[in-house]
Description:
The structure is a single chain. The protein has one helix at 2-20; strands at 28-30, 46-55, 62-70, 75-76, 81-84, 88-98, 112-118. By secondary structure, it is an alpha+beta fold. It has one domain: Immunoglobulin-like (Sandwich). The N and C termini lie far apart (45 Å).
Amino acid sequence: MENKKRIRNFGIFLVLTIFLSSFVLSFGVSSPYWEGKPLRVFPGETETVKLNLQNMVGDEDINVVVSVLRGQEIAEISETEFFVKLGTKDTVIPVVVSIPSETSIGTEYNVTVEWVLVK
């Protein structure tokens, strides 16, 4: 009996998820760097990482607010709000990464960037 309730509840959840997914606006972010392929910058150097926002799904243009959540001591985004036209995949977000000159070689920093869709 308990198993039938779980199956029924899961079925209702699945149907609602599929139904409500048609109301979701989405966008994507691509980066040339990730956990298996990190950015390498030597002490005293500055590198600009170009992240791309994509708006290939949906039916309208979007505005996205971008901020650095973790790693503010080395990463900076000068512009924080971006307009991304529908059907585009090339809205560039420049993230400037500067490693202090006194940093030991081999030191690892993690940078987390947050993307928020704004209506």
